[in-house]
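ping. complex inputs:
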Amino acid sequence: MARPGHTAWLLVGAAMLLLASAATAQDCLSARFSNGRTFGRCNSMPTLGASLHWTYHPENGTADIAFRAQSGADGWVGWGINPNSRGMVGSSVFVATQSSGSPSVLMTNLDSTSPSLQPATLKFNVPVAPTVEYSGGAYTIFATIALPGNATQQNTVWQAGSLSGGQIAPHPTAPANLASATRLDFLSGSSTGASNSRLRRKNIHGILNAVAWGILIPTGAIIARYLRVFESADPAWFYLHIACQCSGYILGVAGWGLGLKLGSESVGVTYHPHRNIGIAIFSLATLQVFALLLRPDKKNKYRLYWNIYHHSVGYSVIILGAINIFKGLDILKPASGYKTAYIAVLATLGGIALCLEAITWPIAIRKRKRDANKATNGNAGWQQGA
Ligand SMILES: *[C@@H]1O[C@H](CO)[C@@H](O)[C@H](O)[C@H]1NC(C)=O
Ligand SMILES: *[C@@H]1O[C@H](CO)[C@@H](O)[C@H](O)[C@H]1NC(C)=O
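pong. complex structure:
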């Protein structure tokens, strides 16, 4: 029979594995297309919930592509190739909207940062007219292109934005929008340059904080609340709790510091709620660490008040942590798999807590009765655990 402590670690391991696998999963592989169309390769873009699917024909240097990106029905998405340089200016793009009432695709060249968006002949051949579909909250642009210069490596760009008065409005300037360019190899499928160092550090900030405040700290709380009910888990639960919370705090502070650094570097852009909640979480968690030093002895009459304080600050950190992880996901807009993975982790932890609540109730009640009996039998020195 596994000890409760071991079971808990197995569960923690399972939750982490779930997060890791969902985060690295190429959600583009599961995409389905109308008319049974299939593509040889795909690439989940790192931003804007977009993916590119394509089949490259080396015989004639063309590629059949499908670009899919999430958008509201009142938004636009675009994908294209920049034959001469990186980034938006100079690129030839396909833009999908429903500004005319039904999904349509515009081919245009982006000659400046505020292009006119007039229909134009692209800088590469488009042997088959592009088509577009809108379903399930995403546009899919189908196109066949002759890769410029018959080269398999191309600078690709993609984007998403909204309409204003029925017209395509400039895209937002959030980090995800500014990082949506990559050099793609149509032959091998590899891509580089999408995660510039700033985006990479933002991702590290996100992962550190999600693991710390989103997994380790709640797991530590679950351990403290439920495992200590089992007599055989005493005092193991206490050390597991400390181990989870300390490692969570260390990772969390590292992620928090990186977040502050990223914030100080982004002149003119401040995510006030995300920043303020982050500072509140750090302050409460630090208070929690120092409160350990002031913890009264089990028999001290103030211990009850300390426990109330410890629990309320602890639960506040967990709730604020979850809120801020969602706020961070909304800022960073990573591939949709991350948000799904985090929701799965939350649901898993919540499910585990519910099951343990059901399992430990009868045990806790029995224990309380026994303790009450002991107390009335004159064994008043025995006190219930922390
Ligand atoms: C592109 O290159 C391939 C070989 O690399 C060649 O077979 C093909 O004819 C070329 N296509 C064009 C349109 O130049
Ligand atoms: C390019 O080659 C593929 C595969 O042979 C073929 O299906 C496609 O029609 C060709 N495209 C053009 C524009 O010639």
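The first helix runs from residue 4 to 24.
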